[in-house]
Amino acid sequence: MTAILQALASGLALGAIYGLIALGFNITYATTKTFNFGQGAFLVPGSLVGVSLVLLSVGKPHFGNLSPAEMTFMAYTLATVASVVVVGLIGIALYYCAIKPFVGAAGLNWVLSTIGFGIILQNTALAIWGPASIAVPSPLGSGVYRIAGAGIRPHEVLIAAVAIAVMVGLDIVLRKTRLGKALRAVAFNPQAASIVGINVERIVIIAFVISSALAGLAGILIAPVTTASVFIGLGVALKAFSAAIVGGLTNPRGCMAGGFLLGIIEALVGLWRAEFREIAIFLLIIIVLVIRPAGLFGTKTVEKI
Amino acid sequence: MGQHLHTLGLGAILGALAALPFLGINDFYLQILFTIGVNYIAAAGLNVLVGYAGQKSLGHAGLFAVGAYTAAIASADFGIGAWTSIGLAAITGAVFGLVIAAPSVRVSGPSLAMVTIGFGIVVEKIVTEWTDIFKGQAGIYGIAAPTFLGKSFTNLHWVIFVGLLSVGLHLLFRSLLSGRFGRAFMAVQLAEPAAESVGISVVRAKTLAFVISAITCALAGALVAQQNQYFNSDFITFNLSIFLLVVVIFGGSGSLYGPLLGAVVLTLLDAWLARWPALQHFTYGALLLFALYLMPNGLAGALSRFFPARSNMAAKPAASGALVAAFTPGNSGAPLLAVSGLYKAYGGIIPVKEVSFEISPGKVHALIGPNGAGKTTLLNLISGHVPEDRGSVIFEGKDITGLPANRVASAGISRTFQNLKLFGHLSALDNVLIGAHLHVGTGIASALLGTPGNRRAETKAREDALALLDELGLGARAFDPANSLPYGLQRRLEIARALASRPRLLLLDEPAAGLNPQETRELGEVIRRIQAAGITILLIEHHMDLVMGISDHVLVLDYGEKIAEGAPEAIRRDPKVIAAYLGVEEAA
Predict the structure, then answer these.
(1) Is B135 on the interface with A (CB under 8 A)?
(2) Which residues neighbour B133 within 8 Å (Cβ) at sequence distance 6 or greater?
(3) How far apart are CA B135 and CA B141, in angstroms?
(4) CA separation for the pair B373, B49 (Å, rounded)
(5) What is the DSSP letter of A144?
């Protein structure tokens, strides 16, 4: 029972990460019918830029190990902000290089161009940071909370709290603000949005900045759990993609719910047989899609004949 | 590419293969040639799926694994001979192709990408983790290679074998894709509802494409395992799936020569860059990022500018009788089509509410009503494009209720679409040939082998199609892409495509929409000629002059219900019809 509680807690934390990235997929997919297939590579600068800044601030070279004392809460907060800003800006480059030439065109060229952008980003990171991974201490220390006998790491609570706060915040922004309305207008009909004076390209760029920034945030949040390295991204991003598809790529809340669902399933299956985690998850996704092609919370689009 | 150029190219390749033993090429270059061949084999099949049927798979590493492990386990655990193992690999590949097609044909777009990625990752994890059978990273050793004169294949033998296999596959695909099946794949890619409307089963076409791609990827996997005599789970990664897709798309998907160009260029690039691993990855990234921007149709598309356009095989239109219908009217008083109690609701909106009517053979029937009356939905229910909630449709005494659109089409009902659904960049002739899909009598085997029977059927279909185009005044534009025709001719081309499926009942959804008065008059003529050929017509139309001029019987729909039917003159005076169109003053 305690093991299950423990798994649930880490599943929630992991699911929050998937949900954040999946939400990013939703925001760009809604506005452009494309998203960043190379999102995994965006987690890499997300974690490494922040960690290197902390390292440099305590007078160490940009690559090395941090002692727990050096990772203060303040330092981690600043690192997070820096990561989000840097990766958000990379999102602008992504839009101009990999998305803009292919938006609206039939086919899957945008899939390959975003994967290509990701490969370049990842290998740039490889040239700067090398292949080794950096152990990143959590600002909350390595202690364990005991809740009903289950050991829960404070960083997992932090991940879930930050991610949920960001999701709720974005949900409110999407629903209530002018920007959110503009985003939804572009998503619904770019031509009509343009007619009423919305600068569609600006909105689309904002969508890619938000999406990339979310990946950067996910990268720095998850670093204390996975360590920071050039190779952390692909697996996480693939599961986030699965979360978006299972929840419904067209529904932001569905994407978040999909993330939590996947994180929890992954943790529970891992409790039973760790090596079956991916097999179980992806088989489940295939089954879900066969039964509900638009995802659990997605709306089916009926093609008008 | 011209016939001569093709023969020349094949001759050059076969000549090079024959000369290979005397050139003293070292193992390094032989290995590169082998890799080119294997990549081509995998990509050639994947191109059928991606380039022709339009299904984007990001999981074909899984099928590569199926072939490789079939060959490896057959040899290492069961001592099965190398040739038999290759055959087994192709068979298991086909079986797994069916397995992955089953969920894949139900989804599209990003969900399809997800299903295929999921399949690839499940296979990758199974071969990595299930070490009892697949030996994981440790790998399977001692995989037997085929023998030549009692000795295991050397690299030289491998290159010649793979080269011959590639040439063979190329010839099979060339025949398959230039005919009935190639057109059906393109139709599915370009407009699924239109493909269904002429009797092409979208599910079957996609499944066939998946199986073809699965077989060639499994073959490639088996060949790599045997040539290596060793195989482990490190081969099977998401990156391999991406690489296979890149070979197809960078080379030029949907082009017969794309996979060849992609395999040659990417394999050479890979080998050349292997000295600088860091640069290698950057190059891949840059290639993915910019190549498609500069060459949207891949290398093949970029190179095709330097070759003259494919010369169109000389085919004369058949003498006459293109509009012959199988139905001879007047055999009895029985209705051709009987619709009863048809009902369809989308949530609270009920576009078709308990509609019943009959259509008698040989006549022109018009279906009219204000916008939003449910006319198109009713047509979609009859043609099988939308499933009904309840009610029945009987055609020629046969219950066709609930049949999918392609089965309705093969029963003898064909249609056009309100929003044109032509196969845009295919020629007018190809559009009509796709329409004739059900009547090109050739099976998959004879289409692959290009048998004389297949060629006869194709030639016959071409002649019939040209005759039909001539008869509808489109003869001069037969080889132009459909989307380059003026709008009025595009509408007429849709009618030609529908007629090519030799329907007994033709459904026309607003055929005069967007036509000028002259074109509308010509359309009336065309409809009369179709009727004269014995084909029954049901048309939706707003153009009242046309409706009153050509129809024998008029049905009026309003708010999903049939409010009147009868002869045009009677309908014109019916107070209910006038009220529906013009509104009435409420009695105070």
Answers:
(1) no
(2) B73
(3) 10
(4) 40
(5) -
Q: Which of B106, B246, B421 sits opposite A112 (nearest CB)?
A: B246
Residue A111 has its nearest CB partner, among B113, B126, B281, at: B113
Residue A196, min C-alpha distance to chain B (Å): 26
Following DSSP, what letter does each residue of B138-156 receive, concatenated?
A: T-EE-PPPPEETTEE--HH
How many Å lie between the alpha carbon of A41 and the closest alpha carbon of chain B?
Answer: 12
Q: What is the pTM of this model?
A: 0.91
- Are B410 and B352 in contact by the 8 Å Cβ rule? The answer is no
* Residue B477 DSSP class: G
CA dihedral angle for residue B181, residue B186, residue B190, residue B194, rounded to 10 degrees: -20
B515 token code pair: 């036509």
CB atoms A242 and B114 under 8 Å: yes
Instruction: Look up the domain containing A169 and give its range.
Output: 2-232
**Alpha-carbon gap, residue B281 to A123, rounded angstroms:** 7
β-pairing, B364-368 with B230-231?
unpaired
CB contact under 8 A, B118 and A283: yes
d(CA A210, CA A85): 10
Residue A285's pLDDT band, with cuts at 50, 70 and 90, is confident
Q: Is B385 on the interface with A (CB under 8 A)?
A: yes
B111 contacts A293? CB cut-off 8 A: yes
Q: Is the dihedral of CA A214, A215, A216, A221 positive or negative?
A: positive
Residue of B550, B477, B542 whose CA lies nearest to B515: B542
Residue of chain B whose alpha carbon sits nearest to that of A246: B111
Residue A211 in contact with residue A26, Cβ under 8 Å?
no
**Is A275 in Cβ contact with B289 (below 8 Å)?**
no
B257, B300 in Cβ contact below 8 A?
yes
Domain-embedded: residue A299: no
Phi and psi at B478, nearest 5°, equal -55, -35
| pLDDT tens, position by position, A172-226 | 998 899 999 999 899 888 899 999 999 999 999 999 999 999 999 999 999 998 8
What domains appear along chain B, each with residue ranges and CATH number? 33-239 (no CATH), 321-412+503-588 (3.40.50.300), 428-502 (no CATH)
d(Cα A59, Cα A77) in Å, to the nearest integer?
Answer: 18
Predicted confidence (pLDDT) per residue in A112-157, tens digit: 889 899 999 999 999 999 888 888 888 888 778 887 777 788 899 9
Structural domains in chain A (count): 1
Please check whether residue A265 lies inside any domain of the structure.
no
For residue B293, the one-letter residue type is Y
Confirm whether A247 is domain-assigned: no
Q: What is the DSSP letter of B427?
A: B
